[in-house]
Structure formats: structure tokens, C-alpha cells
């Protein structure tokens, strides 16, 4: 593996590759056949037909339970956020979404440029079938991905952009802030609180 990941050309290639991967999914449910891990966090990938239920019960609530008592604002905002999740991720907000095959932990440390082909390659996934936009949460949290990547993704994606994506991606980014807070504690609470205050 070699080569810079910041150039416009490689960023566009990453966006195209992700859109192609997301369209290759063969599942009609959300989840995965085996357990996967995001960092040290074990993911409940039990199959589910309802995306909002999957995200609440199998992603967000386990993390809120894990960090309960560490910060009163995280606890308070988290309870309110979960009670309103249907507004952002329910079937009215996201009608007929198709499960996409996700990397699940796509930050700058988990992709690179192949030395020979000059194509982007991704590795160390926390794989599952989910809403395609959930991929963008970690990409937004740590950066390393430019707008060129997202534009290229949208240009060829088979999934239309639905109103409210900015807020949904904030929810998906919040998951990764919470996960880091659960794993490492400390200053990661501020990222959680900032996102929840903007959403609520």
C-alpha cells in the first residue's frame, strides 16, 4: 500500500467504489450472519427488518447503557434522542430503504491506495448490512475524506438522497463518538453532547 489519499482523483475513486459496494448487497434485512467489532465494541448483528429498531436497539442503546452514569448531560440527552429516533430513521422518514453492505468503521486509518493499481482499498471493517448513509458517520467524525468523495458517491449511487440526510449523518456520527467515549472516556463526551444539542 502506498500513495496519498488526499488527492481529488483518489477521493472520487473512493466515493465511486463505496457506492458500488453499497449497491452489491443481497440482503433484505439489516444485520449480519456473524458478530463484528467496531474497535473493541462487540456489535449485535442479529437480523432485523426495521432499520430504526435495529439502530436504536442494537447500536445506540447498548452504548448509552454502557456510558450511563459517566456524564449526566449524555444520559439526559441520550434518553430524549432515543425517544425521538423514529422522527429521523422511521419508515415515514426513510421509506423503502434497501440494506447496503457497509464497511462500518471507515476512517482514514482503514483505507489506503494500492501501490500497483492506484485504486483505493478498504480494510479492518465492522461489517453489517445497514442504511447506506450510516457509512458516512465515521467518515465525518475523523475527516480524511473530502467533498469530492461524497459528490462522486452521489453521482453514481443507486440510492436517492432523501431530505434530512445531514441530521441522519449526525446521528450516525454520534454513534462513533459514543463508541469512543465508551472505549476511552475523557474528552469524547464533548463530541457526544455537541451533536445531541444540535439535533435536539
UniProtKB/TrEMBL annotation:
Single annotated GO MF: protein-ribulosamine 3-kinase activity
Lineage top rank: taxon: Eukaryota
Gene3D superfamilies in UniProt: 3.90.1200.10
EC number(s) reported in the record: 2.7.1.172
Chemical reaction(s) catalysed: N(6)-D-ribulosyl-L-lysyl-[protein] + ATP = N(6)-(3-O-phospho-D-ribulosyl)-L-lysyl-[protein] + ADP + H(+)
Protein name according to UniProt: protein-ribulosamine 3-kinase
Protein species of origin: Rhizopus microsporus
Bilayer-spanning residue ranges: none
SUPFAM superfamilies linked to this entry: Protein kinase-like (PK-like)
Amino acid at each position: 500500500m502506498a500513495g496519498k489519499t488526499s488527492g481529488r482523483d483518489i477521493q472520487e475513486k473512493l466515493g465511486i467504489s463505496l457506492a458500488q459496494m453499497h449497491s452489491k448487497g443481497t440482503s433484505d434485512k439489516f444485520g449480519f450472519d456473524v458478530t463484528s467489532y467496531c474497535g473493541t465494541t462487540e456489535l449485535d448483528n442479529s437480523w432485523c427488518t426495521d432499520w430504526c429498531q435495529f439502530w436504536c436497539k442494537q447500536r445506540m442503546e447498548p452504548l448509552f447503557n454502557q456510558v450511563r452514569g459517566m456524564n449526566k448531560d449524555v444520559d439526559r440527552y441520550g434518553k430524549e434522542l432515543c425517544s425521538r429516533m423514529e422522527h429521523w430513521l422511521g419508515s415515514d422518514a426513510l421509506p423503502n430503504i434497501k440494506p447496503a453492505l457497509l464497511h462500518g468503521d471507515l476512517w482514514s486509518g482503514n483505507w489506503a491506495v494500492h501501490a500497483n493499481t492506484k485504486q483505493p482499498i478498504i480494510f479492518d471493517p465492522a461489517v453489517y448490512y445497514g442504511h447506506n448513509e450510516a457509512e458516512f458517520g465515521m467518515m465525518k467524525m475523523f475527516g480524511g475524506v473530502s467533498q469530492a468523495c461524497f459528490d462522486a458517491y452521489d453521482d453514481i449511487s443507486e440510492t436517492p438522497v432523501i431530505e434530512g440526510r445531514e441530521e441522519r449523518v449526525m446521528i450516525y456520527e454520534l454513534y462513533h463518538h459514543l463508541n469512543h467515549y465508551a472505549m476511552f472516556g475523557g474528552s469524547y463526551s464533548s463530541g457526544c453532547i455537541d451533536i445531541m444539542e444540535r439535533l435536539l
